[in-house]
Amino acid sequence: MSTINGTAGNDTLVGDKFPFHLPPFLSNADTINGFDGDDKLYGLSQNDTLNGGNGNDQLFGGSGNDTLRGNNGVDVLDGGTGADNMNGGDQNDTYIVDNIGDIAAESFNDALGGVDLVQSSVSHTLGFGIENLTLTGVGNINGTGNGNNNIINGNSGNNTLSGLAGNDTLRGNNGNDFLNGGTGADNMNGGDQNDTYIVDNIGDIAVESFNDALGGVDLVQSSVNHTLGFGIENLTLTGAAAINGTGNGNANVITGNAANNVLSGLDGNDKLHGGQGNDTLNGGNGRDLLNGSVGNDILNGGNGDDLMYGGDGADVQNGGLGADLFIFDGLSESPAGAGLRDTIIGFNGAAGDVIDLIDVDANLLVGGNQTFKWIGSSAFTGAGQLRYSGGVLKGNVDSDSTPEFEIALVGAPALVVGGAGTDILL
């Protein structure tokens, strides 16, 4: 074992290379001390200890399991191929990590100042006192932060980037990346391809700077109120809280959780899915698809020719401007009776609005999906009949003379049934 000491100047020190193997109870590992000056220290194949001292030092461990200490100065620490322990000390240090057993940490958390960077070609979690992490190479590897405000950059592979605590900045670059900023107010940019963002703080920002110039469809999974940032397509609300989701200028898919949500598409041809809960869905501009699903929902189509699915529950539907299609898929979606049936506001057949009953079985006494027979305002005489009176569309599907299916139309607009301009698809 050798101890090699530098001077107060700028030294280049290389460990001893023994031409023979020592017995197991001996070691030819080196301790190299740079002392003052901007030094370059090189270990070799043993488990070497490199101490940079003061100055801006470069420490290269070699192939053993080395210990590198930068001390003061702007240092570069590269442990080499072994499982190395690296501590840069104060100031702005850079660590090269290429082994999952590498440890990079700053014992005193840069007490005298400094921002540190790990450049890693393997999956890595930042150690104590390290601020920033950049993944290198092309492999599908992952990067995890710590309690500091981290900057974590992915490589061209498929990365999982996790900020943990702190107000972090995560950049996925290319690849199908998964970005989770953690508990702070984080800034996340997945880059191109299909990226997924976890949002859990109202201060979180998720954007795609170049709007997926090379392709990709991105998803935000949010447990708090969230408005989609530039270049993000889809939003799913998570958790059990009553929270809201808002789209952007893209064609968004926005999905609610089990609570009462307000979903707003804004521009673009959007798809809004309320899920469970009593939801409010606002399509905005574009040809939107609104699906209330379960619950007593409010659907506002806005501008454009919209597709309106109230789903189960007593829903209120307003197509807004455009030729809107109100679609009913079964008897349970609008049962008979006030407080049970759906209500349509602003229905205008002359403007192209249509009620679609094709998938509603008109006669439960006959197998298969039967079609309604239009009888105008006449009284029911049997199953499978559809009538309209007093602003309420009523369907009789069994042997009695009372309706089992109803839709209320506010303002009692006139309905045309049959022919090219029909208002109801039977």
Characteristic key phrases:
single chain, 426 residues, mainly beta, 14-stranded parallel sheet, eleven-stranded parallel sheet, 0% helix, 31% strand, rod-shaped
Structure description:
The chain has 426 residues and is mainly β. Helices cover 0% and strands 31% of the residues. The protein has no helices and 42 strands. The strands form 4 sheets. It has a 14-stranded parallel sheet with strand order 13-15-17-19-21-23-25-27-29-31-33-35-37-42, with no helix packed on it. A hairpin with a 2-residue loop joins β39 (385-389) and β40. The radius of gyration is 33 Å and the shape is rod-shaped. It starts with a strand and ends with a strand. Mean pLDDT is 93; it is low at 18-22.
The low-confidence runs, each spanning 5 or more residues with pLDDT under 50, are 18-22
The percent range for helix content is under 10%
Q: Per DSSP, what share of the residues sits in E-state strands of 2 or more residues?
A: 25-35%
Mean pLDDT: 93
Largest sheet: 14 strands, parallel
- Distance between the ends: 92 Å
Order of strands across the widest beta sheet?
13-15-17-19-21-23-25-27-29-31-33-35-37-42
Q: What is the number of strand segments?
A: 42
Please state the CA-atom Rg, rounded to the nearest Å: 33 Å
Class per helix and strand makeup: mainly beta
Shape: rod-shaped
Total helices: the number is 0
Write the layout of secondary structure elements.
Elements: E1 2-5, E2 12-14, E3 30-33, E4 40-42, E5 49-51, E6 58-60, E7 67-69, E8 76-78, E9 85-87, E10 94-97, E11 103-104, E12 117-120, E13 124-125, E14 132-135, E15 143-144, E16 151-153, E17 160-162, E18 169-171, E19 178-180, E20 187-189, E21 196-199, E22 205-207, E23 219-222, E24 226-227, E25 234-237, E26 245-246, E27 253-255, E28 262-264, E29 271-273, E30 280-282, E31 289-291, E32 298-300, E33 307-309, E34 316-318, E35 325-327, E36 342-345, E37 354-356, E38 373-374, E39 385-389, E40 392-396, E41 405-409, E42 424-425
Parallel strand pairs: 1-3, 2-4, 3-5, 4-6, 5-7, 6-8, 7-9, 8-10, 9-11, 10-12, 12-14, 13-15, 14-16, 15-17, 16-18, 17-19, 18-20, 19-21, 20-22, 21-23, 23-25, 24-26, 25-27, 26-28, 27-29, 28-30, 29-31, 30-32, 31-33, 32-34, 33-35, 34-36, 35-37, 36-41, 37-42, 38-39
Antiparallel strand pairs: 39-40, 40-41
